Amino acid sequence: MSRVRDKELRRRRQRRAKLHQLKAKLAASKDAKERERLMEKIRRISVYLPNDLKDLDK
Prior knowledge:
- By secondary structure, this protein is mostly helical.
- It has helices at 3-28, 32-45.
């Protein structure tokens, strides 16, 4: 593979790992303010995720 493609795949994998980490923190959070802060981070990384908090409990 080309170096450009490797960089793209590395960025995608890093984003996916970060999303999993943020979703785990979101599931463990109890404070509404913290949940909203985490949702902002999640939306910044992936704009295609649903806005509803219930859909991220998976």
